[in-house]
Every structure is written in structure tokens, then in C-alpha cells.
């Protein structure tokens, strides 16, 4: 029985890791499609957000969901809709982006309290996952996936005006715009951190005296450092 439990749990975690890998691969493929069809991606995001707002209204009319959660869900998707004004170029420090992140987190809290309330009818786990996927996760996920098209789109597509073409051709403005893209900004931050560590390690190795390893002398359990390359005064 003990071996069976170990195999079952190990297989479960391996399956979850495989599902996560497949999901990441699918999102990356969608991001590649969004890079090629930027205008269509913006239209899809627009109709998607509008459709979810209509779904919130229908849930309030037919299923009598609480008005507070419905109103906040509608307001959240209106905030998401504001991100499409500069699509696909979204500034990380903009008010609309920060408000979208806050609405995304608060929506989870409000809907959690709604479904755990004793006055709310009982719903299966599959029903809850379906609701959260369509009404809470779908629009933010679609926007996050399409954020990666910022560096590949041509001037005049989405939110970038065609008059900015000359500015983009300059290295300084290209670097500045490159860092405004959310997905790329996250990847650049990680690369900068790892690159800084590699630079410090390279600087340390360059300051070592030549044949440092060959000059180390081990005698039994004792370690004797090589003579210092700097002369003492």
C-alpha cells in the first residue's frame, strides 16, 4: 500500500507538470499568432471583453447573482478595456495597468466570498472552474498573451502612431519602447539580474592571479594558499 501511494502521488505531480508545460506552450503559440495578426488580436480582445460584460448582466438577471460582485466584475472589464487604447503597447507604470492588476486580485476575493456564502446555492468544482475561467481569468489572460506583440508590430498598428517611425529607428527610443512592453520588461529584468551576476563573477575571475588553481598546494588536511601577487611594502 505504501508503494502504491508513492507511485500515485508521483504520477499526479508529473501529470500536473506536463499539463503546465502544455499550457505554456499553447500560450506561447498564441503569442506568436498575435505578433503576426495584431489588428485581429485587438478585435478579438475587444469582443471578448464586451461579451463577458454581457454575461455578467445575464447572470444578474437570470441567476440573481449579487449586485456588488456583478458591478465590480463589469467595472473590472471596463478597466481591462482601457488597456486596448494603446494596444499592443502597454506601459507598466500606467494607472490603467496598475488598476487592472488590482481589479484582477480583488475579483478573486469577492467571488470567493460569494460562493462560500451559505445563502449561495451549491456549485460543483467543475462549474466554479468554468465560471472563473470565462468571467475572471479569460480576459486578463488574453491581454497578457498579446502583450508580447509590442516589439514586433509595425508603426501605425494598434496604439503606436505612424509618425513615431523615425523615433523607433533610433537606438535610444527603441530601447525605451522595448522596456515598456510588459512581457519583454519581465524577461529583460530577469536577464539583467542574471547578467549582473555573471559580470561580477567574470570580474572576480579576471582579478585572480594566473595559474591560481595550479599554485594551490594541498598537504594532508591542510590547505596552503599561494603567495600573494602583490608585494608588501
From TrEMBL:
Transmembrane stretches, start-end: 6-31, 43-61, 67-83, 95-113, 125-145
Protein localization: Membrane
Chief subcellular location: membrane
Molecular function terms from GO: COPII receptor activity
GO biological process: endoplasmic reticulum to Golgi vesicle-mediated transport
Signal peptide, first to last residue: none
Keyword Disulfide bond recorded: no
Example of a GO cellular component annotation carried by this entry: COPII-coated ER to Golgi transport vesicle
Top-level taxon: Eukaryota
Keywords, ordered alphabetically: Membrane, Transmembrane, Transmembrane helix
Pfam assignment, any one: Erv26
Key word Signal present: no
Family classification: Belongs to the SVP26 family.
Name used for this protein in its record: Transmembrane adaptor Erv26
